[in-house]
Write a structure and sequence with these properties.
Strand content: 35-45%
Number of helices: 2
Largest sheet: 5 strands, mixed
Oligomer: single chain
Number of strands: 9
Strand order of the largest sheet: 3-1-9-5-7
Structural class: alpha+beta
Length: 183
């Protein structure tokens, strides 16, 4: 059976469109990692290790300016933990290095591993909040009943907009062993 020239043209056009779509999908998938890194750089979220390497510590502190940093600790609805900041808030000067402590206690009844996920509000200020050390960078292993002080060291970039006078650093503490893993 011989196909008409119109059908052959339509098939060729469809084949070209499918090839372009396939190449575009591959290119988009290939570009996702650099796009994610750009998104993390712009928002201040995501790639915490790279943010930790970014140094603003060499900058002189702006002691004429005060910013209140509030600390929140949250637990998901599942899991038995105690998790709280040692201080509810502190007043800081941009450009100066500070340490804030959180207390976590394993009440799950077993040895376990937990991971803290940070959030900064307002989100427009997130690129100016730099963690140099943080318990959120790696999963934390806890023995049964273990209580531990977890520290975060941070500096606020003096280039933070003047209208920002209050930040909130919030952590949600997840029990990694109860997380559902796709197989």
């Amino acid at each position: 059976m011989k196909l008409s020239p119109a059908i052959l043209r339509a098939n060729r056009t469809l084949l070209i469109k499918l090839l372009v779509f396939t190449l575009g999908a591959f290119g988009f998938g290939y570009a996702l990692i650099p796009l994610y890194d750009v998104l993390c750089d712009v928002t201040g979220f995501g790639n915490e290790r790279r943010l930790a390497r970014k140094s603003v510590i060499d900058v002189k502190p702006d002691e004429k300016r005060d910013i209140v940093v509030e600390f929140l600790a949250e637990l998901p609805s599942s899991g038995n933990w105690e998790f709280k900041p040692v201080l509810a808030r502190m007043t800081v000067h941009p450009g100066q290095l500070y340490t804030a402590d959180f207390i976590a206690k394993n009440l799950t009844g077993r040895d376990t591993t937990a991971q803290a996920v940070p959030g900064i509000a307002p989100t427009k200020a997130a690129p100016f909040f730099h963690k140099t050390e943080c318990f959120c960078f790696t999963p934390q292993k806890f023995k049964l009943g273990e209580e531990r002080v977890l520290a975060v060291r941070f500096v606020i970039d003096p280039a933070i907009p003047n209208y920002v006078d209050r930040l909130t650093l919030a952590y949600t503490f997840y029990d990694e062993t109860t997380r559902v893993v796709a197989r």
